[in-house]
Amino acid sequence: MRSVFVFPPGERSVTAALLDRSVPGQREPWILDGVLYIDIDDEETGFLFSDWDPEDVAGLATAVGHRPAWAVQIDVSGRVYGIAEVHRAVALLLANGGVTVDDHSAHPWTLREIVSGAVVEGRRFFRPRFTPPGWHGR
Predict the structure, then answer these.
(1) How many CB atoms lie within 10 A of CB 36?
(2) Among residues of the chain, what percentage have pLDDT more than 90?
(3) Distances (CA, A) of 105 to 20, 74, 109
(4) Confidence label for 64 from pLDDT (cuts 50, 70 and 90)
């Protein structure tokens, strides 16, 4: 499984309510499109930042303006490439600002960068440097 961490602005409860409306009848995890497993994690009761490099957490805090206390974690099934599904979920969660970090770089991506196809350190958001054979990306 691959993971994306989304740091939306505002309160955790507002984001949970948005997910409840977008994926009715599910909660923790919310399963979107049958391939995205979405949960909210924090440092106090969960594992947020437990396996992050300290300099990556510091870079995120700089981008956000503070060290986030919680995040939306999106795990992507290994059965699919998942680019389109992740982009839809991130667009929903970052519609009012915030940033996201994927498995391929520590860069805090804004929705504007993702939508524009920006390349940072030779990569686009949620795209490995090399595409596996047979994957065409949706």
Answers:
(1) 21
(2) 78
(3) 29, 16, 10
(4) very high
Q: How far apart are the C-alpha atoms of 126 and 87, rounded to whole Å?
A: 9
Ranges of beta strands (E only) in the chain are 2-7, 30-32, 36-42, 70-76, 99-102
Is residue 7 within 8 A of residue 94, CB to CB? The reply is no
Please answer whether residues 100 and 7 qualify as being in contact, where contact means their C-beta atoms are separated by less than 8 angstroms. yes
Q: Domains of the chain: which residue ranges?
A: 2-116
In this predicted model, what pLDDT tens digit does every residue of 36-59 receive, in sequence order? 999 999 999 999 999 999 999 999
> Residue 60 is encoded by which pair of tokens?
């995120």
Tokens at residue 112, please?
A: 């504007």
With beta carbons less than 8 A apart as the criterion, state whether 102 and 72 touch. no
Q: Say if residue 7 is exposed, middle or buried (CB neighbours under 10 Å; 0-12, 13-18, 19+).
A: buried
Give pLDDT, residue 127.
84
CATH of domain 2-116: 3.30.70
In the chain, which residue ranges form alpha helices assigned H by DSSP? 12-22, 54-64, 83-93, 111-116
